[in-house]
Design brief:
Blueprint: H1 2-22, H2 27-105, E1 109-110, E2 126-131, H3 138-148, E3 157-162, E4 182-184, E5 193-194, E6 199-200, H4 203-216, E7 224-228, E8 233-234, H5 236-246, H6 249-252, H7 273-280, H8 286-293, H9 307-310, E9 316-318, E10 321-323, E11 332-335, E12 345-349, H10 350-358, H11 373-384, E13 387-390, E14 396-397, E15 413-415, H12 420-433
Helix pairs in contact: 1-2, 4-11, 7-8
């Protein structure tokens, strides 16, 4: 602006000089030209002053908004820091608990970076389910996900559990395909809130749903079971890609390779060797059952199993920890957060689902009325000796000390996004910026 004023003053001075020079020859014309040039200069200077005056309040408003935003970010960082420190303390307690269980049980825990690289040997079929509350945003959000084939509706098989389909219905509800995927529950989904973080104390509700999953038996036709919350932006294709390279080899090996697969007798060819051993244990010891089942066909099944693979180990109490040796060492679940398992996306292989539901009675010492379902499942699995694989890019979520928005990473799921606009904006951003090999 200063240089502009200097130019205007120089031009004004020159115009006056020209005006004086021309007065002798054409005084009227020179005066008119000089006056016109001066008017143009004055108009430009006045416009600059007006523009400068108008820009000041806008600049002030922008500075105020920026200042408010800085203060808000500072508060959020402070809150996040305090929450993160508290969560780290809880996570440290969980790790100590896990170590005590590993010491007493000899359980395996993989960091998902060791003994990997399996390629196509791993079965990547997915059975996915969500619990839908019959009110609020969830019915509409799930319906839009179904319309676009997003979330759990990109899995090999999807199911929605709820106790009412009212908000999914219309005048022609019988013609809505999504209703064929809905499984009605005959109990209330209402839960109290409480605990240190004042979260939903929903363990009993989800345990009953897990029991329903096992009773329906659909999950047995697929290698992996995924439980996803409706507000979780989930990419099944990314999960399949990761399963090909991130599952530990000793988990994925077929049990038939070791001779402890299915019974060799023609009329019992579908029977699992381990199940046959546990049946014999009703009247025999573990060692006797293993010896009987190992007799060659046609005398018996010809199953060559170890006690760890097949026997049903009795519960034992070790101090305050009731432990259980799993009958299926291939059972595995994924820990998706450095603070412990978080519920927006849970991934279990079908052996772990079966073992969890069959052994719920062995976890009655855990406080199901004080914990959310994710913490209860995590602790119960550890107590049962199920393999826990740490896989921290499975889920990006706020409660794990992360910033999922704007969803530009290659994580497999992002949480929480409760409106359709937020949900599909996150999905589009992840597709545009994060679709690289995970």
């Amino acid at each position: 602006r200063r240089s502009r004023r200097q130019e205007m003053r120089a031009a004004e001075k020159k115009a006056k000089e020209v005006q004086e020079d021309l007065k002798e020859h054409k005084p009227d014309q020179a005066a008119a030209e000089a006056d016109a040039e001066l008017k143009v200069l004055h108009r430009e200077e006045e416009a600059e002053k007006i523009k400068e005056a108008n820009s000041r309040p806008r600049l002030a408003k922008a500075l105020l908004r920026m200042s408010a935003l800085i203060r808000q970010v500072a508060r959020e960082k402070k809150d996040l820091k305090s929450d993160t420190e508290a969560a780290k303390k809880d996570a440290h307690k969980d790790q100590e608990y896990a170590k005590s269980l590993e010491k007493s049980l000899g359980t395996k825990e993989s960091n998902a970076t060791e003994d990997l690289s399996l390629g196509s040997e791993v079965d990547q079929t997915l059975y996915c389910w969500s619990l839908m509350l019959p009110f609020g945003y969830e019915p509409g959000l799930l319906k839009k996900q179904y319309d676009r084939g997003a979330g759990i509706f990109g899995c090999d098989k999807a199911q929605v559990f709820t106790n009412s389909t009212t908000l999914l219905d219309s005048k022609t509800s019988a013609q809505i395909p999504i209703l064929k995927m809905v499984e009605l529950l005959d109990f209330s989904l209402s839960v109290p809130f409480g605990g240190k973080w004042y979260t939903a104390l929903n363990t009993d509700v989800f345990n009953r749903i897990w029991q329903k999953v096992v009773a329906l038996g659909v999950y047995r036709n697929y290698a992996w079971t995924v439980k996803a919350d409706p507000d979780t932006v989930f990419f099944p294709d990314r999960l399949r890609l990761s399963l090909r390279s991130r599952v530990p080899k000793w988990i994925a090996q077929k049990r038939n390779d070791s001779g402890c697969g299915t019974c060799g007798l023609p009329r019992f060819y579908r029977d699992d060797c381990a199940a046959s051993v546990r049946y014999l244990q009703q009247s025999h010891t573990c060692e006797e059952a293993l010896r009987l089942i190992a007799r060659p066909v046609p005398t018996d099944c010809g199953c060559v199993c170890t006690a760890e693979q097949a026997c049903d180990w009795p519960a034992r109490t070790d101090g305050e920890i009731t432990s259980w040796r799993p009958s299926d060492p291939s059972a595995m679940y994924i820990n998706n957060c450095k603070f412990g398992l978080h519920g927006p996306l849970e991934l279990l292989n079908n052996q772990a689902v079966t073992l969890y539901v069959d052994s719920l009675s062995s976890c009655t010492n855990l406080p199901n009325d004080l914990w959310g379902e994710d913490k209860y499942l995590d602790r119960c699995m550890l107590q049962l000796g199920v393999t826990r694989v740490n896989w921290f890019n499975l889920l990006s979520e706020t409660a794990c000390g992360e910033t999922p928005a704007p969803c530009i990473s290659n994580d497999i799921a992002f949480h929480p996004f409760k409106t359709a606009d937020e949900y599909f904006a996150c999905q589009a951003s992840a597709r545009a910026f994060g679709d690289v090999q995970v």
